[in-house]
Amino acid sequence: MKRIDITKTFRPTPEAREYAKWLKDKKIFERVIDGYLFAAAFAIKNNLDILPIPSKDRQHIVVNLLGLIDDDVRLSLEAAVYAIHKRSKKPQPTNSDELIEIISQYAEAGLIHLKQKWQGKVVNQIQDDIRKIVN
Amino acid sequence: MQIKLKSIHFQNWKCFQDQVINFNLDTVVTKNIWVVFGDNGYGKTSLLQGILWCLYGVKAIFPDTRQQPKFVTFFNSIAVKENPSLEMSVILTFKQGEELYRITRVVKRLVRGNNVNFKQTTFSFNKSGKEKPDTKENIESLLPESCKELFFFDGKKIEEYAKLTHSKETRNAIEQVLGIPEIRNLIDDTKKVRKEIEQEFDNISSTKNELKKVSQELNEIKDNISIKEATKNQTLQDLQQERIILNALDKEARQSDEAQSKFDEINKLEKTESIVIKDLEQISEKIKTSFRKAPIYLLSGLVREIADEIHTKTLINNKQLADTSLLEKLIINDECVCGRCIDTEVRQYLEEQLEKAKNSRHLYKQAVDNQKLHTELSMLCRTPSPDLELLLLRRDRLEEDLTETEQAIKKLKQDTDGFDRDSIKKIWQKLYQQENALKQKQDQIDRLERDIEELEEEQSKLQKQRKKLASQNKEAANLSRQSDIADRLYQAADELVRWQIDNSREIIEQYTSEIHQKITNKPEEYKGVRINQDYTLGIKQKSGDIVNPEEINFSPGEKETLAFAFIAGLNQASGKAAPLVMDTPFGHLDPIHKKNIINSLPELPSQVILLATGEDLPQNILDDLAPYIVQTHVISRKGDNRFSSVIKIE
């Protein structure tokens, strides 16, 4: 099982970053990264289809992940990627960069899905939906 | 007995060239309203001004003497073109019982070069065909000038009264109705007589030392009593003012008391608010953390799978490590697991295997890593997911509580606007000071009353003494009796003023209250009207409280309604039952008050002449009034000329 190098960076697309920022601005998540990783976890859990992310215009969500992602959240994502690749008999990522890219692809897919799902909903409704997703 | 306006004759007066308006008085008693309709600018105000001028002269129209030269413009312009030196006149005929009163005022236009002026040529009072010498005095007894605004008024006058503060002129009018000036005159006359008698006494007694001494002492005491009475009256007036201030302060203090309890409530609520904010922060923090950790709860199933897999790997590693240990044991004991000795070939094989296993540090490291990872993953799987439903519910409730608390604080702060703790303290200090001031004034009055009582006793003794001494002289005895009578008259007049004020005020209050009750749009809230010492008005509420209309936020319509009730009440109390001539008085009143006032007119025991536009008296109101209307006059114009109005009966 590959681990994430915490000196590396997540680089979302402008659209994904914008929506994750909207979630932060609406105080649904405290930070942009929290919404981004929640979307990734949601996509992994629901085995959403992922696609390679075009490198053009991708942004740096954070410069350094050190101290920003909780260790337990990071471990969950690492284990989940490992598990889902194993289930679908896909090759496991060989290094941290590959792993970060896979998590990013899930986050992008998750954000697109959640954006549609939460279209027209108010903050309290979205938070209640997160409750239902988590529980 | 009612005084009624029978006719008006205008000649060259403003827009009327030669106009006679007859008010038919041969009518049934139930009808008391005459309507004069006219559009704005057609001559309604000119009609009212004509009445005022005829009775009271130019000053009734232009109280400011600097404005009076403008009066030359009152001559009818069309007639002036034909004859620049013409005469202008107004003749009013009133009827009271069987008596007819005709008042005539004529002025002539004087032209000297470019200078135009006017001069009064006739001012006469005719009673039932006989000319009376003192026109002004006769008018004064018929319709006193000081009361003119109670008989002839317009919307502006009602607005002035509605301000609920009275000008000197208004106060005079009210006192006139109360009958105060006549009694004051009586007191002044009595004072003069007393002084004259005392003077004569002095002359007579100058030859008799003892009588002179007593008279002097008596005069001194009387002067002293007068001074003390005047001081007492002034102090009573001051006391009245102090009471008004005290009442205002008392009210303010009561309000500040309420504000104080509201401040306490605000304090309590602010404490609650701070607790709620703290709880809300804690809950929000928990929700934030739960959302941040959400991937753990979401992915726990997958994590468990991996934890289980790592666990299996750990078991295999452990088995491998256990094998190494067994090899070591076999070599050391030189014994096979079956109990036989191992031969060289086997030993060599075992040693080779052991060496291999020992050299494989990787095996140890992997075992350790797997064990650690397994522990971490197991712990992750065991992480309980938070009860987000409960957390979100609690947060929503706390937010609601916070909003409610904030709103309650905001409302209380609005209620206490204008107060702060310092100002409350100051109000109470002022109240105590005012109570002390009032007490001092009251003490002063008590002292003055005691002094006056003592002086009066002394006066009485001296009067008896003087009477005794004077009895020795016939003229002095006579003067002594006259002096006694003058003294008693003075005291009686003084008492009469007080009695008259109280009595008349009660009567006016009664009339005003009755009228107000009929015309107010809140008869269920108010019981009547109270006339204060300074003739301002108070409202008696059903609860029994008497409040200032300003305090209960009377609307302008309510104030004007109250003012109308007061004017009409004064008119009735004046005992003159004079005609009420009203020039568009309700133009700007709201429909309910307008309807109420107009509907109350038939009940007034006076002739009512309404000068109105069609807007003032719309058809629905006119229909209500129809049974009480004697005649309707309509002002129209001959052509487009604004100086050629004519009045015809409809």
UniProtKB/TrEMBL annotation, chain A:
Name of this chain's protein: Uncharacterized protein
Domain of life of the native organism: Bacteria
TrEMBL record, chain B:
Keyword Metal-binding part of the UniProt annotation: no
The family this protein is said to belong to: Belongs to the SMC family. SbcC subfamily.
The protein, known as: Nuclease SbcCD subunit C
Upper taxonomic lineage: Bacteria, Bacillati, Cyanobacteriota, Cyanophyceae, Pleurocapsales
Residue ranges the record marks as coiled coil: 180-231, 347-482
Keyword Acyltransferase tagged: no
Database matches in Pfam families: AAA_23 (PF13476)
Domain Rad50/SbcC-type AAA, residue spans: 7-225
Record-level GO BP terms: double-strand break repair
Subunit structure: Heterodimer of SbcC and SbcD.
Natural source organism: Waterburya agarophytonicola KI4
GO MF, any single term: ATP hydrolysis activity
Record's keyword terms, sorted: Coiled coil
